[in-house]
Amino acid sequence: MKINKKDFVRAKVHAHLTPGEALKMLRELQGLTQSDLVEKTGISQSNISALESNARQIGRERAIVLAKALKVHPAVLLFPDFDFSQVA
User: SS3 for 9?
Assistant: First the structure.
């Protein structure tokens, strides 16, 4: 059976993430605990918990520190729902 590229449909976003949910998801996908992230960033565990629960905003400076620790671009944390298809 030959597979044709036209047989596939582009995936769509099914869940919208907040910055805190994105932070938690990235941390968990990398097998890190909040304590591990404390060691990598110097941000307190209570602050990381507040960020993940959206009780506190991540902000630019924290996003840069967290992004370096998680090896992602800061925009991944600040704008997790950004849809490139909406850009002109």
Answer: coil
Contact yes or no for 63/74 (Cβ under 8 A): yes
- pTM (whole model) above 0.90: no
Q: What is the DSSP string of 27-53?
A: HHHTT--HHHHHHHH---HHHHHHHHT
Which phi and psi angles does 53 have, rounded to 5°?
Answer: -95, 5
Asked if 67 and 74 touch (Cβ cutoff 8 Å), the reply is: yes
CA 20 to chain CA mean position, Å: 8
36 C-beta neighbours (distance < 10 Å), count: 13
pLDDT in tens, 33-55: 999 999 999 999 999 999 999 99
